[in-house]
């Protein structure tokens, strides 16, 4: 009951000068609100990036062809064809590799239903949808028999379906890649744009043998896609793939590059997290300014209420009672400001997200941190004024005009 009475007394004291109390809280409100808004927006952006990375597939390991050295000239991945279908087949024996797909890619004009469209043509194995964690809206993936027989079958993305077969079922329809007819056997579920701004649904997928023998005659593949059994097994799988390919290629230096989904995800989120921490640090300066404001006003309040303090001491109030009274006032100011700041920060983030069509996510950990920060600021900024008030001499305080 004594604590409640002290809180009521603190609120009554703050209400005497409402405008001054509001202006004092403004620093804390702006500081907390800025932190919550900034972190909510950047956290939402980070989650959006992580979702886009996840849309690329789970536990993916990508092997690119192309490191080379010739006559003193050196090139990075993709600069020379070095990977073969046989390399991809050899990786199927690597422990904890659950799916492998040699990948051939090209852009070409496709025709169907009297329409035409320029799109990405991928030559893949039947494991590709499993690697990419890509489900079907209708139809299904082609088979290993289709790969062996160089079958003219195709899977298409939603964008291609919308362009060539609007309002109709594409399954069973004929799709021409150049002048070669392919039968559509599957329609993939929409995935939208990926991390790099590419429309993932604007694609036609055919057996890699069909691509390499019918579309564009070639011996090498652009890359190899593989999926590890679990996220924990990715590092070991990456090392094993490097070992297998190094043994097969027997080059002076690796003529391939192995990249994992983990590396892509870390690259995608690192800048966003850095920006989040930077914005939070900048916004936190407002909290320090707010704390200085509270200390300043509490010192003024001590001076204004010197006679009141003297009367309270004269009727039996102890130094501890005076200390607690002013400390509670400072904490109350900070706590109310922190609460308003949290609400205003969330509303600000929601408003920006609505106007700019941005995803947001309010992290509970930061809300809790804001609450504790407000309390700590109140205690720190209010302690010295409260201590100064408690040290007043009752006789001198009663004489104060």
Write up what this structure looks like:
With 401 residues, the protein is an alpha+beta fold. The chain folds into 2 domains: 2-52 and 269-399, no CATH class; 96-230, no CATH class. Helix content is 56%, strand content 19%. It contains 13 helices and 12 strands. The protein has helices at 2-16, 18-55, 85-91, 128-131, 144-148, 158-164, 208-215, 234-249, 261-304, 306-314, 319-356, 364-390, 394-399, and strands at residues 60-65, 68-70, 73-75, 97-112, 115-124, 136-139, 153-156, 174-177, 180-188, 203-207, 223-228, 256-260. The strands form 2 sheets. Strands 4-5-10-7-9-8 form a 6-stranded mixed beta barrel. α2 (18-55) runs antiparallel to α9. The longest helix is centred in the last third of the chain and has 44 residues, at 261-304.
Overview features:
elongated, 401 residues, six-stranded mixed beta barrel, 13 helices, 2 domains
SS-based class: alpha+beta
- Rg, Cα atoms, Å: 33 Å
> In the residues, how many domains can be counted?
2
- Described by the principal axes of the CA atoms, the overall outline is elongated
- Order of H and E elements: HHEEEHEEHEHEHEEEHEHEHHHHH
DSSP summary: helix tally = 13
Biggest sheet: strand arrangement: 4-5-10-7-9-8
Distance between the termini: 33 Å
Mean pLDDT across every amino acid position: 83
Helix content: 55-70%
Query: Describe the biggest sheet?
Result: 6 strands, mixed, barrel
Which residue ranges are poorly predicted, with pLDDT under 50 across at least 5 consecutive positions? 68-73
The beta-strand count equals 12
Q: What share of residues are in beta strands?
A: 15-25%
């Amino acid at each position: 009951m004594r604590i409640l009475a002290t809180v009521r007394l603190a609120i009554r004291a703050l209400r005497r000068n409402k405008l001054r109390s509001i202006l004092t809280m403004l620093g804390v409100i702006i500081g907390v609100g800025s932190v919550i808004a900034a972190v909510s927006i950047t956290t939402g952006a980070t989650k959006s990036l992580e979702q886009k990375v996840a849309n690329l597939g789970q536990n993916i390991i990508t092997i690119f062809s192309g490191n080379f050295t010739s006559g003193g000239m050196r090139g990075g991945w993709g600069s020379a064809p070095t990977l073969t279908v046989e390399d991809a087949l050899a990786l199927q024996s690597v422990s904890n590799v659950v799916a492998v797909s040699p990948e051939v890619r090209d852009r070409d004009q496709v025709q169907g239903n009297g329409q035409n469209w320029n799109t990405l043509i991928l030559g893949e194995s039947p494991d590709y949808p499993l690697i990419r964690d890509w489900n079907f809206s209708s139809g299904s993936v082609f088979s290993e028999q289709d790969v062996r027989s160089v079958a003219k079958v195709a899977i298409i993305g939603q964008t291609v379906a919308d362009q060539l077969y609007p309002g109709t079922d594409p399954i069973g329809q004929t799709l021409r890649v150049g002048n070669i007819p392919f039968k559509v056997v599957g329609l993939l579920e929409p995935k939208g744009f990926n991390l790099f701004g590419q429309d993932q649904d604007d694609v036609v997928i055919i057996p890699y043998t069909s691509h390499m023998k019918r579309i564009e005659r070639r011996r090498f593949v652009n890359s190899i896609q593989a999926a590890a059994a679990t996220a924990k097994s990715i590092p070991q799988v990456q090392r094993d793939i490097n070992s297998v390919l190094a043994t097969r290629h027997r080059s002076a230096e690796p003529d391939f590059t192995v990249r994992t989904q983990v590396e892509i995800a870390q690259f995608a989120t690192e800048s966003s997290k850095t920006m989040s921490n930077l914005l939070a640090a900048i916004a936190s300066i407002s909290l320090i300014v707010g704390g200085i404001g509270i200390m300043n006003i509490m010192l003024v309040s001590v001076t204004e209420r010197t006679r009141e303090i003297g009367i309270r001491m004269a009727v039996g109030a102890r130094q501890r009672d005076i200390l607690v009274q002013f400390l509670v006032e400072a904490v109350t100011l900070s706590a109310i400001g922190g609460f308003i700041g949290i609400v205003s920060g969330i509303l600000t983030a929601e408003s920006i997200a609505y106007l700019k069509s941005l995803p947001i996510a309010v992290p509970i950990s930061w809300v809790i941190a804001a609450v504790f920060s407000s309390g700590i600021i109140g205690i720190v900024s209010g302690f010295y004024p409260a201590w100064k008030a408690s040290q007043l001499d009752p006789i001198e305080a009663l004489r104060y005009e």
